[in-house]
Amino acid sequence: MAKLLASIKGIQGYVPDYILTNAELEKMVDTTDDWITTRTGVNERHILKEPGMATSDLGKVMVERLLEKTGTAPEEIELLICCTVTGDMRFPDTASAICYKVGIKNAFSYDINAACSGFLFGLTTASKFIESGTHKKIIVVGVDMMSSIIDYTDRATCIIFGDGGGAVLLEPDDSGNGIIDSVLHVDGAGREFLHMKAGGSLRPPSHETIDRKEHYVYQDGKPVFKAAINGMVDTIQEIIKRNHLTLDDINWLVPHQANIRIINGVAEMLDFPKEKVMINIQKYGNTTSGTIPLCLWEWESKLKKGDNLLLSAFGGGFTWGTSYLKWAY
Ligand code: COA
After folding, report:
1. Which amino acid residue places its CA nearest to atom 23 of ligand 1?
2. What is the pLDDT of residues 296-305, one digit of tens each?
3. What is d(CA 29, CA 37) in angstroms, rounded to the nearest whole number?
4. How many domains does the chain have?
5. How big is the chain by its Cα radius of gyration, in Å?
6. What's the pLDDT tens digit per position in 168-179?
7. For residue 321, what is the domain's CATH number?
8. Which range of residues forms the domain containing residue 184?
9. pLDDT for res 2
10. From the CB of 53, is ligand 1 less than 6 Å away?
11. In this predicted model, what pLDDT tens digit does every residue of 247-269 receive, in sequence order?
12. Which residue is closest in CA terms to ligand 1's atom 30?
């Protein structure tokens, strides 16, 4: 019997219906389809437009479909972690709103805010509850409604982000398949390059913060770009080394979908074959905590039991890291 691991037993993605195309953005800001496509790789992104709907409503759909798909009753879930930077409210958390909306009544829950690395931080944290033997059914949701914090007059950011994400069901597995290792890092010095200036305790909302458009994503793209490639490559190399693997052993690289040039840069620096890299940024843009589960969901039918996957991300904080797992079904 192998060591008890947390394994993914089901995955469900979801994006809202409305599609914001590059052609539509061309009418909103001074940009072109060609600039967006070549600089970012994004052709379109999905946006939640319905009034009164929020991040927990996206999470609700994912979790309901995941429970149905895996034949799991809401009462069986013991813990739900929601990874997001666009929670419904400043407080309380969005995880408890999802539990309430889905009818999960026997769980505790909490949010993790690690920006684009959120899903990896959540997955790693959840796996420890399973490995310790205290919990048997955990849901990790990676979801963001980035449109709620994007300034659609700022051409540097509005072209990148979209809404959506996915949820996974984790259960114990003693067959050797599951989440094997993670290398995760933070560096708070990076927060000056990617953040939302106001709305927190540092700069509470005021007329001034609204006039200065400080309730939107601020990004200095170049330093983020450079640090993202280095952070992802370093942690991939570290995890490969300490698990006595070679890159040939890896069936799929699942990178955070921040920018096609970041993804290509990582693959090129590692000399990793492009056809084994999951890429769907062209359809969804950067959904922050949502990109990695959205990829896993889209590739689900191609994944085989025992496949070696590397999940790698970089995001605001800075936060970054790589997880190594063996697919379990
Ligand atoms: N359309 C047309 N031109 C644009 C534009 C747009 N949407 N956005 C910026 N530009 C212009 C700039 O104003 C600048 O013009 P200038 O040379 O006259 O000053 C020029 O294009 C180059 O801008 P720059 O910011 O240097 O472009 P870039 O190549 O760095 O690409 C990003 C910008 C944001 C796409 C890129 O830096 C990036 O992807 N960074 C990482 C972002 C990321 O992934 N963040 C998510 C968290 S991991």
Report:
1. 156
2. 999 999 999 9
3. 15
4. 2
5. 19
6. 999 999 999 999
7. 3.40.47.10
8. 180-326
9. 76
10. no
11. 999 999 999 999 999 999 999 99
12. 222
